[in-house]
Amino acid sequence: MKSREQEYKEIFIAEALEYFDALNRLISELEKRPQDDQVLAEIFRMLHNLKANAKAIGYLQISDVSHKLETAFGLIRNKELSFSDEVVGVLFDGIDLLGELIKSIDSERQVEVDPVLIRNLDIIVDSLSDSTVELAKVQKFSTSRNLTLSDLIYIQVKKLDHLMNLVGELIIDRDRILSLSRELDSDELKTVGSHLYRITEDLQYSVMDARLVSIGTLFNKFPRVVRDIATAEKKEIDLELSGQDIQIDRNILQIMTDSLLHLVRNAITHGIEKPEQRVRADKPKAGLLQLSARSDRESVVITLTDDGKGIDIGKVKNAAVAQQLVPADVAENLPDSEVYSFLFEPGFSLAKEVTEFSGRGVGLDVVKNAIDSIGGRIRIESEKGKGTSFILQLPTSIAVKGALLFEIDSIFYAIPLIHTDSVVALDKDELHEVGEVLVADIKGETVTVVYLDELLNVEESQMRLGDKTRLKGQVQNIIIVSYNNRKLGLIVDKLYRQQDIVVKPLSKPLDSIDLYGGVTLLGTGKVCLVLDVPAITRYFVNRR
């Protein structure tokens, strides 16, 4: 049982961290609009509350720093202190110190307060504008910060993870009971089964709901980050945020935090031009960065758009050929969407020089791996000279996935819906043998098609993936899957329904087989293997 003091402490930390994020955002806004009295009033109010709350609970260092900052903003509000670059730097350092002090409450480490920083705050507070007293130089705002989300959502996340696993087990048993009730044709069992279905569905959504956080908890950290990187890069950036109220699973947001930070850094360092280059290109001096979120059925779509120089397709093709990712003659005819997929290859880089943020060999492949790990998708849209968008499609929950069930050789398989584009039925004559594979025209696009039976059940040396004689029947059921801007058609024997499944990891030694992403149990009690679309797609790209 938690003590009352512990509860008060957790509530204080959660609220203080929210204030810390909001203060960073508001000061970044104030820097752009120094005359905005409303923003000033909000900053003043937050610092006053933080000071009072910290004093009440006995965190006197936090209370003292908050008091100094509150006084400084009071002077700015009364026009007794100018909001100059030098002053802004000190205030940001003061806010950073507050953040360090708040985060250290729950850890053993002591924060060493830089006396030069406290002296700077005192100089500002005492309004010593006398030229003999200069602000001492301290470490200016950190530009390579790491973003972290608070674990304090009043229920520990690991407890919610455990609950979600239990719900997953329950769903598997529920489907088994429903299947039995149909087999035994028992009215009583059917009644119990349908009631159980409703209860587990409610429980599933309740647990998923308890794990949701607003995307704003991450988005609202970016005004400060963008400001710091832009200052270091000597660029002007306007950041527009939208969709902060969209809800997503907290674990998914935590996994995506570093990836989003990486994409934002990339957009500022590589995408958006220096002010003088933008003016020459008839663009506004300040680059525009838009970070938005929206709900799309069972997933959340996060889009990061910049109005920079865009991606040079020719350069990417040349780099891909130089790094032996593709032969020159093949590269020449690739559609743009496939060319962009090279950007996600390990070690691929167009950076000519190492800066604080780029050219270290850590590229978009890290972002891709993070998105793959949660069963999401990423794609790029870009226009040379106009800008680039990264579109991330993320599941709202990790544990329960929508999947399409199908059968090959009397064995059940499932494919996650997030990778499934469409399902088509084609006549055998519409499939053409090209090289070692089959291709088909699907909605005006030439798509490689493979017979999954060959891939999953035949030794590699015996495989003849481009041989139509292996196919059963005249009409072929094909699932079109897509990964990393590449499409692939998978021929299956029978198609079944869409269903929510709980994916369990494969046990050893099966976990080393790349083509399978896990296993689930169907209501009939049959085991169903879940295909790993990224692994299958990579297999064919490597073969090519």
TrEMBL record:
It holds the Pfam family HATPase_c. The modification Phosphohistidine is found at residue 48. Residues 400-542 form the CheW-like domain. Residues 159-398 form the Histidine kinase domain. The keyword Transferase applies. The keyword Transport does not apply. SUPFAM superfamilies: ATPase domain of HSP90 chaperone/DNA topoisomerase II/histidine kinase, CheW-like, Histidine-containing phosphotransfer domain, HPT domain, Homodimeric domain of signal transducing histidine kinase. It catalyses: ATP + protein L-histidine = ADP + protein N-phospho-L-histidine. It is an enzyme of class 2 (transferase). GO terms for biological process: chemotaxis. Involved in the transmission of sensory signals from the chemoreceptors to the flagellar motors. CheA is autophosphorylated; it can transfer its phosphate group to either CheB or CheY. This is Chemotaxis protein CheA. It comes from Pontibacter lucknowensis.
